[in-house]
Amino acid sequence: MTAIPRGRTRRTAWVTAACALAVTGALALSGCGGGDDPDAGTNGIGKLSPDRIQARTRAAADAASAVRLSGTVVTSGRTYRLDMRLKTDGGTGSVTAQGTTFQLLRVGEDLYLKAGADFWNHADGGDGASGKLDGKYVKVPQRDPAYRKFSGFTDKDVLLDGLLTLHGTLATDGRHADGSGTRTIRITGDQGSGGTLDVSLQGTPYPLRLVRAGQAGTLRFSDWGRDFTVEEPAKSETVDYGRQLPAS
Prior knowledge:
This protein is α+β, with helices and mostly antiparallel strands. The protein has six helices and twelve strands. The protein has a twelve-stranded mixed beta sheet with strand order 7-8-9-10-11-1-2-3-4-5-6-12. The longest helix has 27 residues, at 6-32. The protein is elongated.
């Protein structure tokens, strides 16, 4: 048997120990990287109970200065397609119902409605006023029933209060991603029959998608906190309707 020099034995042992330490460290770092942790790199809301997730996302929505809301809302048997930008002191956007589209603009307490001749013909029953109103902003009197009906579409607090509550027993329904790739956590009411809400797992836990209970519409939320301008339309763009707006 050939004798191995003692110096070589020490050197070999040291290299072996160093390699083992490096491998162990690499494995430890791999574990710390959270490859198996679904909440790694998120805002942590996925670790909360569904009740706390709902409370946190409602608080985030209330605190946001602005939001864009798009999708459908079914109420009183009628479907409205919305594309609205909302903030505390106003809102603007479009509403489509029964095949006609109209624009809504609220500046403070003042609400304006703008629509084409088809809308006014349908609403008025064709009384000849549509040409005067076509493409003009009509200021809606605050005592007019139409004010209460349509102003809610332009009021961030009122609209979100009526939408962002799931019904029944809450539960989580896994992690998903919205159209832009943002990771979300989904919560449901009564296994979905009470509505579902997708909440962002990235940054502020804003609501991103809502499916309302009872097939009452689906809405998407975006542009949270992104400001926009609302201002009174020019006088040349407005017209006095002269009487109560049509109830329809």
